[in-house]
Design a protein that fits this description.
By secondary structure, the protein is mainly α. It has six helices and no strands. The chain is globular, with a radius of gyration of 14 Å.
Amino acid sequence: MATAREAIDLGSVGGCSYYEAHAQLALAGALLATDGVVPRAEIESALERAEQLVESIEGRALSPRILEMRGRLAAALGDARASDRALRQALDLYRAIGATGHTERLARELAS
């Protein structure tokens, strides 16, 4: 988490929106991977910031990852329906941009 926070700071200060967005996603992922209570507000904040950055630079390649992380958050919070919906949307976007590795990985997960 410390490394993700450092990367966020560096990306922000350096004006590297794409890298800051990546770092926000890394932070969200690290927060989701911790044991115990899910820090929902902090994860949502990281995902919202990543989404703002993606919109500002039209970096749509990160959009499916944001949706996937939203699905993972919903699952961690016990909302299976919202999780499934977000993960399926992410899968559609992965397909649309030709991200075959992510498409295969997520399709396998959703099929199981």
